[in-house]
Amino acid sequence: MVPPFVFQLVGEYVVEIIDSILACVETLKGMDSYSTFSEDNEAFLTLTRQRVVSYWFCYCRVNT
Which of 4, 5, 46, 59 has its CA 20 to 30 A from that of 38? Predict the structure, then answer.
């Protein structure tokens, strides 16, 4: 799996996709490439994180 595509899929926050990624995270080849991508694309990762938090807040949190 190529880091930009994996991170983008996580940003879609479809639980089944994230579960699939988590199931094979230890077998992803080139873990160094994920670290390098993360360091080189901080703005993209920040946006992805914000999207995940936003989706969770809208659709998954328990309404109080």
Answer: 59
Of 44, 43, 55, 40, the residue nearest 6 (C-alpha): 44
Which residue in 40, 57, 51 sits closest to 4, CA to CA? 40
State CA 21 to chain mean position distance. Answer: 9
Tokens of 27: 């077998």
In this predicted model, what pLDDT tens digit does every residue of 28-51 receive, in sequence order?
766 788 888 889 999 999 999 898
pLDDT at 1: 58
